[in-house]
Design a protein that fits this description.
The chain is an alpha+beta fold and 456 residues long. The protein has 17 helices and twelve strands. The chain is 41% helix and 20% strand. It has a six-stranded mixed β-sheet with strand order 1-2-6-3-5-4, with helices on both faces. A six-stranded mixed β-sheet has the order 9-10-8-11-7-12, sandwiched between helices.
Length: 456
């Protein structure tokens, strides 16, 4: 038997987040195209500039109902026919609404891309919004609301946003509306919101996948290129303001055996130069099982299965203004709520006094930068990130530059950023739990005035 020596490995090539090609169709639709060899399932993300703060007064949730209704029939197909056509393509189509706008997501095998783009175009160009389907979606949404209120994590988020932002701000209210506002939504309201905000000149389509041999220009021209509408109206984004005076809100859940924690405040978004350092520092604090919060609260004290710190962009504007939420979340047993919060605050104070270590910084860089290629193995992951950049008015090469900036950020910069983002005396704490058991221990901590609200 003859043996052949194994050929030497090649020189590793540095990985970089892909930069798309950008174009504009005659109807004003912006298109970002990104060829990813081997990714035979193509992902399409369409950003519609229909933000939640554009919802009419008293109709919170209409953007969500509109997003869900886009695939419930068009001028060519009923809702059932449209679903059957998607199934024949092997495609999935989803849509959701958030503060920056509405996002429509399509995934389809590349061989069926032109057909699926036609269905997507129909949904955007001429949704039917049948009265019966809208009524069904409203009923479904009303059924969801009690379940969301019963979920401790979602209830905590709702209370934190209500506490942080002024009552007149759309940020302070439930993203998908309340029972009162959703009940008012009908097909006429959905059509009116669509006609006011959904148009090609105020939209961007991101297409990612193996596009070798695909005449994407022709496919787009025949589908999304046929979507017409008025020019995009310039609508100023209202500024985001928040009250981060240190205080505690307990959402009372009598008999609860656990307390859900959500501690946060607003901070700079991705347009700010401090974002890479903040991202790195927050990751060191609570981004992984080996972070500081978990080492103390989970491993040393056994209070929790895990506590996380994170930053989440809320909304950005074209002028570069915007804000992000910086928060800490987790849950602990009711009887250790006071001690767990005391130790959590001690972690924050020690971090401010002593700073991060070089080892913590190095581990965070390896985890955030080193595993980046694995995060973007699918077309959907790449398309989602590119769509996020569009939504936040960031340049197309932002993500690629971010990884380089993270690698260059030092321990001192990361420490300063996380301490500034989460100062121990300027945090709003929301606890969902049994107030009769946790209110007095929390008051003794001195982390802010304690208020109890009903959990219903």
């Amino acid at each position: 038997m003859e043996f052949h020596p194994q050929p030497p490995s090649g020189t590793p090539k540095p990985w970089a987040f892909p930069t798309p090609e950008r174009a504009t169709l005659p109807n004003g639709l912006t298109v970002l195209r990104c060829h990813r060899p081997g990714q035979e399932v193509v992902a399409v993300e369409v950003n519609l500039r229909a933000p939640l703060d554009a919802e009419p007064e008293g109709l919170d949730g209409v953007a969500t109902i509109m997003a869900r209704a886009l695939s419930e029939g068009t001028d060519k197909h009923t809702a059932e026919e449209f679903a059957a056509e998607l199934e024949r393509c092997g495609a999935t189509l989803d849509a959701n609404a958030d503060h920056p706008g509405v996002r429509v997501s399509l995934e389809v095998p590349v061989s069926r891309l032109p057909k699926a783009l036609g269905l997507l175009a129909d949904a955007l160009r001429a949704p039917a919004f049948p009265d019966g389907e809208v009524e069904r979606l409203v009923a479904n949404r009303l059924d969801e609301i009690p379940h969301e209120l019963a979920n401790p994590a979602r209830r905590a988020a709702k209370e934190l946003f209500r506490e942080l932002f002024p009552a007149e701000s759309r940020m302070s209210r439930a993203r998908q509306g309340t029972e009162e506002t959703v009940r008012r939504i009908d097909a006429a309201a959905v059509r009116a919101f669509y006609e006011a905000h959904v148009r090609p000149a105020a939209a961007t389509a991101v297409v990612v996948g193996d596009l070798e041999g695909v005449d994407l220009e022709a496919a787009l021209a025949e589908t999304l290129g046929g979507w017409t509408g008025a020019a995009a109206a310039v609508r100023p984004m209202p500024p985001i303001s928040a009250d981060d005076a240190g205080r505690v809100v307990i959402v009372d859940r009598p008999g609860a055996v656990q307390t859900q924690l959500l501690i946060g405040r607003t901070g700079p978004d991705r347009h700010d130069r401090v974002w890479p350092a903040q991202l790195l520092g927050v990751y060191c604090l609570g981004g992984t099982l080996t972070s500081r919060l978990d080492r103390v609260l989970r491993e040393e004290k056994g209070y929790t299965y895990g506590v996380r710190a994170f930053g989440q962009v809320l909304r950005s504007a074209e002028d570069g203004s915007g804000a992000a939420m910086v928060a800490i979340s987790g849950s602990v047993a009711t009887d250790v709520t006071g001690p767990a919060l005391a130790d959590l605050w001690q972690v924050l104070r020690k971090l401010a006094a002593e700073g991060l270590t070089d080892e913590e910084r190095d581990v965070a860089v390896r985890n955030l930068v080193g595993v980046a290629p694995l995060r973007y193995e699918t077309a959907a992951a790449v398309a989602g990130t590119l769509a996020d950049q569009v939504e936040e008015y960031l340049p197309d090469d932002y993500q690629a530059r971010l990884y380089a900036q993270l690698a260059e950020t030092g321990t001192v910069e990361a420490t300063a950023a996380v301490v500034s983002a989460l100062p121990a005396d300027r945090l709003v704490t929301v606890l969902v739990g049994d107030a009769s058991q946790i209110a007095d221990p929390v008051r003794e901590l001195g982390i802010g005035e304690v208020k109890v609200v009903s959990g219903s």
